[in-house]
Write a structure and sequence with these properties.
Largest sheet: 2 strands, antiparallel
Structural class: mainly alpha
Family: Belongs to the GLE1 family.
Subcellular location: Nucleus, Nuclear pore complex
Pfam family, one: GLE1
CATH topology of the largest domain: Serine Threonine Protein Phosphatase 5, Tetratricopeptide repeat
GO cellular component, one term: nuclear pore cytoplasmic filaments
CATH architecture of the largest domain: Alpha Horseshoe
CATH class of the largest domain: Mainly Alpha
Number of strands: 8
Number of helices: 17
Strand content: under 5%
CATH superfamily of the largest domain: GLE1-like
Organism: Prunus avium
């Protein structure tokens, strides 16, 4: 049986059963569906009977002449479902059901195929309209219009549903996005809060540990301080006990030495009377030799007078024995007298300081260490010289330390410090002048220490032939002994040169506003005594060379032509005497002295004489007014 498409004007949903907006049923399915609807309608008392079945639907499947034979069927339709009919006839039909119309499908061609579409139905419609009555065509049109409206309403509802669905979907997505973002923000905030909380915990823990550590350190410092205080008190008690014991021993020793000295003095007085006659004989011999030397004196030394060498017996006073033949000391008498006075003053200071140390419980060694440190820090700058000199004077004026102890320590340290290779001799000379101008006694002690360290600062010299051995001669002229061995000649000459440089720097130092008690006048006297009394040998040559290089510039600027005469005597007599000795070891010092004289190096200011810096500019006179 072929397919037939029928569009009905009926409600979309009857008793919960929805109609397909686009029905595509076969005729058998349509009949079965209509029968099912009739049974449901008849069984329900709430709904009036819409259809009345006049005769059973019996449609034969047989075909004749290529056309489908079918019996007509009767359909009843209510007027309330026909919305577009306004005529009065239709209102009359509302009171009673419309008479059933019979449709004849004898002339309608139906396709055998169940899949025939809307086109075949549309082609058959004109036939129905032509053969049917006007009511049938109206029903057909109404069905089509109702179908179109249903489709349009369904499409609109579907479109609205789709729009609502999209809107709701977008709202859901937006809400989900906001929720996710809010969740991320909350997570980030919680993470930051957690980090801040952990940081606060760490800081609190760190502060607590720091406080605990600080408390432990304070406690440990307190304990260490207590331990140090206890140790210091114990050491102080032990040191006090040692000092008391030492003082007791020193007192006993001093008493014993005093007894021995008294006994020795008595013996010395007895021997002195015996030696007086021998001394007179030696003095007469010395006067005769001095009269001969006076004729050879330098003409320009009128200020100093005639320097006569005095010949004394060596060790006559100490040993009490007659002087052996050849033990002769060569020096000017005036120089020996000055040396004796300075050494006597130094001895008095040493005795006084020894007694002060025995009587006082004060430890004066710290002042001596402080003085030694200041002397070692002297450099060739004006600010260093002024600062060190001021600090030294402050120590001398310190009431806690006797001045005799501090001055003696200064004299010893400043002389011993000149042996160092980096010693600034001119700077040390300035410090000595500045200090001794405030404390004049210090100058004699410094010179006494120089005389004790180097005999050529007097100047004086011993004849080697007067000694029984070379070692005894070396010890007499100042050689040092280390572990029973005499130092080498080169070491001795290096020390001799250092001492003479300090002496030469001292005599030529003049500072405006300060008085040098041992200035250029004493330097001129030293040079005259040296040339009058001392022989020409390696030791005296080194001493003369060092002195000229340090003080020659200042001596020339003051004495001019008189100093040139001195240099001529050195060139004609002293250097010739050195050359005549024929000693190859003398060649370097001879070359240095000869170059000094020939190159007129005394016209050039020696290196280091002018101190660097400006802090002492107010106490120094300009070069034009220096002398």
């Amino acid at each position: 049986m072929g397919a037939f498409k029928l569009e009905l004007r009926c409600p979309q949903k009857v008793d919960g059963i929805a109609l397909d907006p686009e029905p595509d049923w076969s005729f058998e399915a349509l009949l079965s569906e209509i029968d099912e609807l009739e049974r449901k309608i008849n069984s329900s008392s709430k709904v009036s009977v819409p259809f009345t079945k006049e005769r059973p639907r019996d449609i034969s499947d047989s075909k004749s002449n290529g056309r489908t034979s079918a019996s007509p069927f009767v359909m009843r339709v209510f007027e309330d479902e026909m919305d577009n009919i306004d005529s009065e006839d239709e209102e009359a039909h509302d009171q009673s059901s419309v008479a059933a119309k019979r449709f004849n499908f004898d002339d309608l061609y139906l396709s055998d195929s169940d899949d025939s579409g809307d086109d075949s139905s549309l082609e058959a419609q004109p036939c129905l309209m032509e053969k049917g009555e006007s009511g049938e065509s109206s029903l057909f049109e109404l069905s089509r219009e109702h179908q179109f409206r249903v489709k349009e309403e369904i499409r609109n509802q579907i479109s609205a549903l789709e729009t609502d669905l999209k809107t709701e979907s977008q709202k859901s997505i937006s809400a989900i996005f906001r929720v996710e973002r809010y969740r991320e923000e909350r997570c980030e905030m919680e993470r930051k809060l957690d980090t801040q909380y952990q940081r606060n915990i760490a800081e609190a823990l760190n502060n607590h540990l720091t406080a605990v550590q600080r408390d432990l350190e304070v406690r440990s410092q307190i304990e260490e301080r207590k331990i140090r205080i206890d140790a210091y008190e114990d050491a102080k008690r032990k040191e006090k006990a040692l000092q008391e014991e030492k003082l007791r021993q020193e007192r006993a020793k001093a008493e014993a030495e005093a007894k021995r000295a008294e006994e020795a003095k008595r013996a010395e007085d007895a021997k002195r009377a015996a030696l007086e006659a021998q001394r007179r004989a030696a003095k007469e011999a010395a006067e005769r030799e001095a009269s001969e030397a006076s004729r050879r004196a330098v003409s320009g030394s009128a200020q100093e007078g005639t320097y006569r060498p005095q010949i004394n017996a060596l060790n006559a006073q100490s040993s009490g024995k007659p002087p052996a033949a050849g033990k002769i000391l060569k020096a000017a008498e005036s120089a020996l007298n000055l040396e004796q006075g300075r050494l006597q003053k130094l001895k008095q200071f040493d005795d006084e300081n020894q007694a002060l140390r025995l009587r006082s419980k004060e430890d004066f060694r710290k002042y001596e260490r402080q003085i030694s440190k200041l002397v070692q820090q002297i450099t060739g700058t004006k600010d260093s010289v002024r600062q060190k000199a001021g600090e030294l004077v402050n120590i001398f004026n310190d009431a806690r330390c006797p001045q005799s102890i501090s001055v003696a320590a200064f004299a010893k340290k400043v002389v011993s410090n000149c042996k160092t290779p980096r010693n600034a001799a001119f700077a040390c000379g300035h410090v000595i002048v500045l200090v001794t101008s405030k404390v004049p006694t210090a100058m004699d002690l410094v010179l006494a220490e120089l005389h004790r360290a180097c005999i050529y600062t007097v100047p004086k010299h011993y004849s080697q032939s007067a000694f029984e051995s070379k070692e005894a001669y070396y010890k007499a002229i100042g050689f040092q002994e280390d572990e029973g061995k005499i130092e080498s000649v080169d070491n001795y000459l290096a020390r001799l040169e250092s001492y003479m440089k300090l002496y030469g720097a001292l005599v030529q130092t003049e500072i405006y506003g300060f008085q040098n008690a041992h200035g250029l006048k004493e330097g001129w006297a030293w040079l005259a005594r040296f040339l009058n009394a001392l022989p020409a040998n390696r030791y005296t040559a080194v001493a003369l060379n060092a002195f000229l290089h340090m003080a020659g510039y200042s001596l020339f600027k003051k004495y001019k032509s008189q100093f040139r005469k001195m240099l001529n005597i050195i060139s004609d007599n002293f250097l010739n005497a050195l050359r005549e000795r024929g000693d190859s070891n003398l060649n370097p010092v001879i070359a240095e002295i000869d170059a000094y004289l020939k190159d007129n190096k005394f016209l050039c200011e020696p290196e280091g004489r002018s101190l660097e810096g400006s802090l002492l500019s107010d106490v120094y006179v300009p070069e034009s007014d220096y002398y």
